[in-house]
Amino acid sequence: MQNSIFSTAREFARRGVQYAVLLAVACAFIGPFLWLLSTAMKSGAENIFESPPQFIPKAPTLENFGRVFESLPFVTYFFNSAIVASVAVICNLLFCSLAAYPLARMSFAGKNAIFLILISTMMLPFQLLMIPLYSIAVTLGLNNSFFGLIIPHACTAFGIFLMRQAFLAVPHQLEESAHIEGVNRFQIWWYIMLPLVRPTLATLAVFTFIGVWGDFLWPLIILDDQSKYTLPLGVNKLAGTFGKDWRLVAAGAILSVIPTIAVFLFTQRFFISGALKGAVKG
Amino acid sequence: MKPGNIIPVAVCALTVLLALWSCGSRKTDVGGKVTVEFWTMQLSPILDDYINGSITEYEQANPDVSIKWVDIAWADMERKLLSSVAAGTAPDVANLNPQFSSKLAEFGALHDPEAFLSSEIVQSYFTNVWEANRLNGQTFGVPWYLSTNVAIYNRAIFEAANASFPQTLEDIPEIGRSIKQATGKYTYFPGFDGGEPMENYVLLGGKISSELPGYGLREDAVRELLTYYAALYESGAVPPSVLIEGHQKSVDLFQSGELAMLLSGMQMLPNIESNAPELINDIVVQAHPNADEGRTNIAAMNLVVPTQTDYPREAFEFITFMTSPEKQTEMAELVPILPSTPESLNDPFFEMTDPDDRFQLARAYSIEQLRGGGVLLPPLKNYSRLRTAFVRQTQRTMLGELSTEEGAGKIISDWTRISEVESD
Questions:
Q1: To the nearest whole angstrom, how far is the Cα of A241 from the nearest Cα of chain B?
Q2: Do A181 and A231 share a domain, yes or no?
Q3: What percent of chain B has pLDDT over 90?
Q4: What is the mean pLDDT of chain A?
Q5: Fewest Cβ atoms nearer than 10 Å: which of A138, A234, B218, B255?
Q6: Domain membership flag for residue A3
């Protein structure tokens, strides 16, 4: 009886420590976002640099969010980001899964070498590729266009790697049965493989969406026309050379991350299992 | 058609659609009209009406020229410009700071304005500022708008410590010590992210010249500067984070009421009013502590013309229009800047009508300093390496890793070595 009480108490303490650590980690991650939200909701009469810092706004207001729409063509930027991110996600899912399927399930000379070369490109930072990529885009007349904005995100080495790992986990018997039924490779990819790797597709969609939605450097380099700006470029304009109202910047930043949160919430039931796919079987 | 067969068709259709939709816009001359691409540093949206209005005015007066305005984030101008230069699509006119302009000028990437502008126009700008845009005997930019630092004090902190405002930079360590002891707050934040340590070297009596060997750095003057910085650190006048943070941190600290003084341009006053409204009544504006000695720094923003342009003549004509005294006065009425043409200052707008108005006071001090000051840190070859060497040895001396003699010796030897190598 006494042993049971001790064991329950020990278990209770263990859980308590676990939850305390998890809570601290959660606070560390969500803290900056909450701070941003707090700044966005502070009124003009409040010192946002107050010492010690005040987390809870004295007179919470949504006025700053309205001012963002007055200061910028926010809807245009939002629409541009939505188009670019949506098309990039569709292209990435399509092209990466098309490229990954033969690398995972077909035998041909140089397969491993191709995969290795693809993977090795992941080690090159974008800053290194930026200028050659921009030169190519200019040569092709793609600068200052949505197409030029989407192309670098349309098929990524990471996406091919992730999809290849997912295809490798599908049992061979399913593919063999389909072959016996006279189904061609393309139909196997579409009707059998893709439905089975849906969690990985969702994961890749989330990763791509977050990457494209938050991308600042490539749109900065390739776009000149402000009417084609995506949200990160647009929100950046809120902090001007002659005026930095941090409440406005914070409100703009909050508005710009809402779609990312929405996409994650919408796909999270697939996301966790899909994210683990890349970690096993190689 | 089965879905499996639709996919390749859909991919092709999507590609064609996007290609058509993309409408890639290369710079073209339509109907004999010359297009001049004009890049500015984060002037939008506050100056949208002014810039667009000026462009319309210019285009009406010059029907054969079309101006394409592109506004770029301040922090990202260098990356965007370098990419465009590498791809051969540099703008015709760009708004740059002198240090980055000089870096481009080192590689011969900028046109010399004096080859395109008459001497009368050249003389219409402040001579001390025009001269600062010169590297290896060649001018590389036209000064546009200017700024000079004034002293912005938090009176409440000084009163709490019963301390007076510093009259010179050298007064700060002792005043800072008493403020730290009485209030626990800091006095000054000389950032290490820009040219401030080198500017302070000149303010304390040193000289930097691109014409002299080792850029004219004197060991005794460097030692004096390092002694000053070490005293600032030791007295508690500056926070420890000064070693790793830049000017923005000083602004944040001042707005939080934790810093007693801020040396910054007058454009900071509206920001403080907006971000820390309760602080504004405690603010006192005075001239820069060393202004009496006629040594104040002028920060300039330039307009440059890259050599990649096909239309240098049209580009300089547009620059002449944008930097004319009238246009600069118009701009100064909208945003807190100082014009680069002395004639602009004759406009009644620049007269002080209310001495109790902090902003007018700051502008009056700034104008006074503009007339007597200069660009203390001239354009230097290999500037980034020189700055890094100067800053690193100053930081090591502040931390006590080097004596002031050792620090000064290292700075001199580093600068001599760097000044002798080719541009990198």
A1: 6
A2: yes
A3: 61
A4: 88
A5: B218
A6: yes
User: Given an 8 Å threshold on Cβ–Cβ distance, is A51 in contact with B278?
Assistant: no
What is the span of the domain harbouring residue A4? 1-61
Rounded distance between C-alpha atoms, residue B294 and residue A64, angstroms: 44
Asked if residue B15 is part of any domain, the answer here is no
Task: Nearest chain B residue to A228 by CA: give it.
Answer: B22
Per-residue exposure over B97-120, b if at least 16 CB sit within 10 Å of its own CB, e if not: bbbbbbbbbbeebbbbbbebbeee
Name every chain A residue with its beta carbon within 8 A of the beta carbon of B267: 241-242
Instruction: Give the C-alpha separation, A213 to A211, whole Å.
Output: 6
- CA of B253: how far to CAs of A197, A247, B159, B172, B238, in Å? 52, 17, 18, 17, 11
- DSSP-derived secondary structure for B243-303: GT--HHHHHHHHHTT-BSEEEE-TTHHHHHHHH-GGGGGGEEEE--TTGGGT--BEEEEEE
Give CA–CA dist A45/B346, Å, rounded: 37
pLDDT tens per residue, range B108-148:
899 999 999 999 999 999 998 998 888 888 899 999 999 99
Question: What's the pTM value of the predicted model, to 2 decimals?
Answer: 0.81
Q: What is the pLDDT of residue B295?
A: 75
User: Considering its fold, how many domains does chain B have in total?
Assistant: 2
Q: Which residue, among B424, B337, B348, B340, has the nearest Cα to B381 in the 3D structure?
A: B424
Edge-to-edge, what's the strand order for the sheet holding B298-304?
B65-72, B34-41, B93-96, B298-304, B142-148, B338-339
Residues of chain A contacting residue B89, judged by C-beta atoms under 8 Å apart? 138, 143
- Count of CA atoms in the C-beta half-sphere (13 A) of B248: 8
Q: What is the DSSP letter of B89?
A: -
Give the pLDDT band (50/70/90) at residue A276. low
Q: How far apart are CA B40 and CA A171, in angstroms?
A: 58
How far apart are the C-alpha atoms of B283 and A255, rounded to whole Å? 34
Nearest-Cα residue of chain A relative to residue B86:
A131
pLDDT of residue A155: 92
Domain holding B341, by residue range, is 34-146+299-363
Q: Which helix (H) or strand (E) holds B20?
A: helix B3-22
- DSSP 8-state class, residue B110: B
Mean local confidence (pLDDT), A12-35: 92
pLDDT at B424 over 80: no
Cβ–Cβ gap B335/A242 under 8 Å: yes
pLDDT digits (tens, 9 = 90+) for B20-51: 444 444 454 556 789 999 999 989 888 999 99
- Secondary structure element (H or E) that encloses residue B83, with its range: helix B77-86
**Closest Cα of chain A to B167: distance in Å?**
28
- For A137-191, write each residue's pLDDT tens digit: 988 989 889 999 999 999 999 999 999 999 999 888 888 888 888 888 889 999 9
Question: Residue B84: its chain A contacts at CB < 8 A?
Answer: 134
CATH code for the domain of A255: 1.10.3720.10
What is the DSSP pairing of strand B93-96 with strand B150-154?
unpaired
Where do we find the tokens 């003057």?
B221
CA distance linking residue A232 with residue B4, whole number of Å: 37
